Amino acid sequence: MSLLLIGTTGMLKSAAQQVAMETPGDVVVLSRRAGRFLFEDASLNRRTRTYEVDWTNGPAFMASLDEIAESHGPFTASLVWMHRRDESLRSHIAHQIADDGILIEVLGSAASRPSALGDVRVRHMKGLPQVRYRQLLLGFVHENGQSRWLTHEEICASALEAFTSEDSVTIAGQVEPWSLRP
Fold this sequence. Notes:
Blueprint: E1 2-6, H1 13-22, E2 26-31, H2 42-47, E3 48-52, H3 58-72, E4 75-81, H4 87-94, E5 97-107, H5 117-125, E6 132-138, E7 140-143, E8 146-149, H6 152-164, E9 169-172
Parallel strand pairs: 1-2, 1-4, 2-3, 4-5, 5-6, 6-9
Antiparallel strand pairs: 7-8
């Protein structure tokens, strides 16, 4: 059993730490600056394996992921935040998830648009029924006539909600009306 974390060393760090504390086995962190990454828990850091890998270089990332998965996979859970639409890269990650494992993909608000990446990913992941796919769409908050982006705390709370939800899509904040985006 192991946990795969990609793109979670910034705004998703506290959610990644919470999930890691609840997931037995290795915690595998892939990041461009993984060598500098630490959780705020010494016992968790002892279980954490960090790899400096850049998902913006798709072929090199996939080759590295294959090597890492040989040592630590298949992954029983994964939390992924990438700013790229690269379907082959996303599919490659999904194929490293264990049967009945869970994959949480965090997507920006633009993915919520009809026929955008969010819809495409849900349809694609239905073709991999052995993976429990959950998508977290990041929206915004509109209050008192003002709109703002979500805080890190709000994003992390929604990521944790996505892990426990049976819904294939969780929306953090709101994504409509689109015209109110900050």
